[in-house]
Design brief:
Chain lengths: ~280, ~110
C-alpha cells in the first residue's frame, strides 16, 4: 500500500533528471548549429546560431542581375532557400526550369500551384458510409429521446389519464360509487358545503363567484345551464338554474352531464321529453 | 298515427310536482280518502279543492307506505300550495310526478321535496 506513495516520487525524480540531461546536451564541432538550416553558423560575437553573410558568387551575381531587388551582398538563407526581398523563401527555380518554364523564372519563386503538391491526400470517405453513420447518429438521438425523463413522464401521465377515464366510465355505470383522489375528495366536500349553504340561498353568487361555473346554454323560458369542470377530473358537473313560476325564486339543481340544453335539463327534472316540457308553458304555478 | 295538439295530454307544473294527464288510472291503484297529493319538508302541502278522487300506490322506498300517485278530477279543480299560486286543473285523470335532481357525487337521482 505504502509502496505506491514511493513510486510517484521516484518517477518524478527520474523525469527531472532526464530533462536536466537534455538541457545539458551539447553539439560537437562537426555538427551544424541548426539541422534545419545547415549553412547557419554560430556568430562568435553573439553566440547565436544564424545565417552567415557571404560575398557574392557567380550564381548569386546572375540571380542578382535577373532580380534587381536583390543586393550584391547576399544572405545565405540555407540549403534550398534564397533571399527574396528581406525574407528567405524556398527556391523552386530548379523545378520550374526542369518543367521548361524559364520565362517566368523571376516571378515564380513561390508558385502557388506547387504549394500543396506534397500535402498527403485526405482519406476518401464513401458517401454510403457517411449516410450509414449519420443514420446511426440520428437513430441514437431518437432512441435517447424516447427514453428521456420527459418522455417517460409524459407516457406515464397518458397512461394515468387513460386509466382514470376508464375507471370513471366504469364507475358511472355503478350507482352510488365514485372513486376519486384525495384532492378531488377535498374539493368535492368543499363544493357540496358551498352548494348547500350558498347555492340554496343565493344561487347567482354561488354560480358566478363561489363555483366559477361556465354558462353553456340559456333558454327563452329563463332557464340556464352551467358547467363546472374543475371539481372532479373527467367529470363535468351540470347545473340548471331556473325560476319558480309562482314565487320567482331562483333555484339551482344538478342534472346529468350528458345534458347540453337548459330546457332539456328542466325536462329531465320532471321526467319529460323536451317537447313535453315546451307544452307546460302557461300551465305552471 | 298523427297526434293532434288537442289530443295531447295536458301538463301542469305546480312547484316540484308535474301533473300529467293520463287516459285511465290503473286498477292496482287504491283509493285514498285525502285531498293532499304531496307533502313538503316544511309542512306545506299540495292540496286539491273541488270534486276529485285521489289514488295511491305502494312507495318504491317502503312498500308499507301508500303514497298518492293518481287523482281523478271529476270537474275543474284547484291545486293549492302555501308558497305557490293556485293552479286550475281541468277534468280528467292525472298522474303525479315528482321533480327529481341529480347527485353527481353519488351518481344517483333524488326526489326533490320543497
Amino acid at each position: 500500500m505504502f509502496s505506491h506513495f514511493f513510486v510517484f516520487p521516484i518517477l518524478f525524480l527520474v523525469m527531472i533528471s532526464g530533462a536536466s540531461l537534455n538541457s545539458a546536451e551539447a553539439r560537437s564541432d562537426s555538427e551544424p548549429c541548426s539541422y534545419l538550416h545547415k549553412s547557419w553558423q554560430i556568430n562568435p560575437s553573439t553566440g547565436i546560431c544564424g545565417p552567415t553573410i557571404v560575398h557574392k558568387s557567380s550564381s548569386a551575381q546572375n540571380y542578382a542581375m535577373n532580380n534587381p531587388t536583390n543586393t550584391f551582398q547576399q544572405i545565405s538563407c540555407g540549403e534550398g532557400t534564397i533571399l527574396k526581398g528581406n525574407s528567405c523563401v524556398i527556391d523552386f527555380r530548379h523545378e520550374i526550369s526542369a518543367q521548361g518554364q524559364t520565362d517566368s523564372i523571376n516571378d515564380a519563386f513561390l508558385p502557388i500551384t506547387n504549394l500543396f503538391n506534397n500535402i498527403p491526400d485526405f482519406p476518401k470517405i464513401d458517401p454510403v458510409q457517411i449516410g450509414f453513420f449519420a443514420a446511426i447518429f440520428i437513430a441514437s438521438i431518437f432512441i435517447g429521446r424516447q427514453f428521456s425523463r420527459k418522455k417517460r413522464i409524459s407516457r406515464r401521465n397518458r397512461r394515468f389519464i387513460k386509466f382514470t377515464r376508464t375507471r370513471n366510465s366504469n364507475v358511472q355505470d355503478e350507482p352510488g360509487i365514485l372513486r376519486v383522489t384525495p384532492e378531488e375528495y377535498r374539493r368535492m366536500q368543499e363544493f357540496e358545503r358551498n352548494f348547500t349553504t350558498v347555492g340554496k340561498s343565493d344561487p347567482e353568487y354561488f354560480l358566478h363567484v363561489t363555483s366559477g361555473a361556465k354558462l353553456i346554454d340559456a333558454s327563452r323560458r329563463g332557464n340556464e345551464l352551467y358547467s363546472i369542470d374543475t371539481i372532479i377530473r373527467g367529470i363535468s358537473l351540470r347545473l340548471v338554474k331556473y325560476r319558480d313560476p309562482s314565487t320567482g325564486q331562483l333555484y339551482v339543481s344538478f342534472v346529468p352531464s350528458h345534458i347540453n340544453k337548459a330546457d332539456h335539463g328542466m325536462a329531465w327534472k320532471f321526467h319529460q321529453t323536451p317537447r313535453e316540457y315546451s307544452r307546460t308553458k302557461g300551465n305552471e304555478a | 298515427m298523427i297526434s293532434w295538439p288537442w289530443n295531447k295530454p295536458k301538463l301542469y307544473r305546480h312547484g316540484d310536482l308535474l301533473i300529467r294527464q293520463v287516459d285511465e288510472i290503473p286498477e292496482s291503484a287504491k283509493q285514498l280518502s285525502t285531498d293532499i297529493i304531496a307533502h313538503g319538508e316544511n309542512g306545506n302541502t299540495h292540496k286539491l279543492h273541488g270534486s276529485h278522487q285521489v289514488y295511491g300506490t305502494h312507495s318504491s322506498q317502503n312498500y308499507r307506505i301508500i303514497e298518492p300517485t293518481y287523482f281523478q278530477a271529476k270537474e275543474e279543480v284547484s291545486l293549492k300550495h302555501q308558497e305557490h299560486n293556485t293552479l286550475k286543473i281541468s277534468k280528467g285523470n292525472y298522474v303525479i310526478v315528482h321533480e327529481r335532481e341529480y347527485n353527481p357525487f353519488k351518481n344517483i337521482q333524488e326526489e326533490v321535496i320543497d
